Amino acid sequence: MTPTRMSRRVFPAIAMIIGVAVSVMVMFAAPPGAAQENGQGQGRPGDYIAIDGKVDQGTYDGYIAYTRACLACHGPDGLGSSFAPSLIKRVQQRTFSEFSNVVAAGLQIQPDMVMPSFADDDYVLRNIENIYSYMKGRAAGDIGRGRPRVIDEAQGQEPAQRREEDASAKN
Amino acid sequence: MLREMKYAIATIGLLAATTLQANDNQLELQSNPEYWATQLGNYQGNRYSQLDQINRDNIGDLRAMWQFSTGVLRGHEGGPLYVGDGRLYIHTPFPNKVFALDLEEQGRILWTYEPDQDPRVIPVMCCDTVNRGLAYADGRLFLGLANNTLVALDAESGELLWEASNGDHTKGETNTMSPLVVHDKVIMGISGGEFGIRGHMTAYNAETGEMAWRGYSNGPDKDVLIDPQKTLMMGKPIGEADLGVSTWPEGEWKRGGGAPWGWVTYDPELDLIYYGSGNPGSWNPQQRTVDGEPADNKWAITVFARDPNNGQVKWVYQKVPFDEWDYDGVNENQLIDVEINGEQRKGLAIIDRTGFGFLLDRETGELLVAEKFAPETNWASHYDMETGRPVVNEEFSTFRQGVNVNTTDICPTAMGAKNMQPSAYSPETGLIYAGINRICMNYEPYETEYVAGQPYVGATLTMMPAPVQEGDQEGRMGSFIAWDPVEGEVVWKTDERFAVWSGALATAGGLAFYGTLEGHVKAVNIDTGEELWSFKTPSGIIGNINTFQHQGKQYLGVLSGVGGWAGIGLAAGLEDPEEGLGAVSAFAALKDYTELGGVLTVFALPDA
Q: Where are the residues of the annotated region Disordered (chain A) (predicted)?
């Protein structure tokens, strides 16, 4: 079984809302209390599982989504480029709400330094949480450079199952 | 010589007097060594200047006369044009401003053009919002804007004369290349190879902006403008019809890439234009197989020779059939006349993405030489000179290794052993001078889905400096080389910390020039590569060094302003395979050396 994160399943519905009204993102600032109390790897945005450099499926999807949609500006592995900041550094100071807000709405402080809005991009919206998790893992030093491997069955069962239980409890 | 060329043009016949003008004017300007009238210096793409006021004896005295900030931050490619009217014409990356600067008043702005473009074009530009510059003919300037609008400006006033739409950014099409004016036509390609576009080269009427012809890179022969009975491949008619359809899985040619976004060169005597098409569609080769087996994906990564009058393809040479590494085949085709095996040949030389230096016959497209200029090149052992096909090394075949398998230590990287930075050729030495990239990669394909206007990539990759060979500078990521296109060998090289991403210049002053990503403009002895002079501009150089003479004084002009793919890939430093999790890269990071910002620097010798 490939480990998956339940929260990804509930997210698309919320993601649809981002496209409509960015202000709705405030929701993420105050996630359901139960989820808040759980520890690491419990299906909140930014959670991830990393064992020996291998990651859960959602975080892996985050890496692929990042590579497809963000690398061209934010550089390989979130490290930043000559014209967009390192997201590894920034996620340390940004809540998921702030992070997803920028992705949905875009940002332009200087005239030609455009952070585009991804409000019309379903693929990115579906993966914001995964990208955030991937960046958090990078920031903590748990995920290295390059394409991470997905945790295989034998190794991954334990934490993945725990996560699913917790996530379903949340529902 | 000039008369001969005019004669050649006249023989094309059926051209109205006005239609002759643009070309005539451009040829005349090119034949004057004091001018730099087209981005590559001449139609042949030689980037060579006969000027020798600045030479080996006095190069040490060369100094910056003035600098001009463009006010734009992103990567500045291309360079200034000088057509003898006392002005420099320069352009910027998005928002694609154009400035006419007074050379006699240290760059006073005579006029500015600033188009109004939808910033939504920015996210569909794969590798920064670069633009490779203006074209000029007959009092008009031409620029391809990022949003695919081709504009013609009055050079005197900067007034907009006409605009034409060359593509659709909602499908991922954008423009980065410099147009080329041939006869009465403005020739223009397209970018978007990472978005599954269908590449095309188009000619517009220089006076009206009306489309004259469009030739696609893939699809049926009638769209590519191929006649299989006449169009040559390896010196013989292609024969089989519609290879641009049959060498793809069902319908995949429609998103088959082959974006021709590099430089176009032109032979006025043969009356043929030359350019290369880019990588085929998705970077995942599995998605481009036919019945599970490699397919040629024609005509991606192909050199095209077309008749500029109607776009008909005279010959094709596919450098990489079934690409498995993103060896985007757009590098410039230098038109050079060579002696090979005691015979005079009209040659076409390429310092290619693949790490191979090619020499072809530009009349027939026959392959004459294919040798490695980047010694680390390992994806193919050599080219089969009979078939013209690379002999691929299984170990580095990302298709054979498979989807979701990381094929490691492939050289060169997808950036190519040389990218868009144009090379120079000196007819005096018979050598080509080029800034190159010494970087390798790990490449891992994955299944990807096509969505219009979204990246269609399908592979992840990581990069590292090419293994150091004896005598190399430790950790170097670039070199500047002198290449013998006939012998197929490097004559000399000098290493650089970062990939050399600027255009080269060769001069009759015994000098070759190039810029570095740290921001140095360097002059080297053209015979040895020995560095004779350098100047540090405010930002990394991905532009080209151009030279011209005004009122008896030779100048050098260069745009600095780091960016492009180099700015994305090298900013944070490359990966060290040995390094532990979370460690800081052991290799030099470009961000430790330079920051953004476009500046034009103009050099000359001090008054005696």
A: 145-171
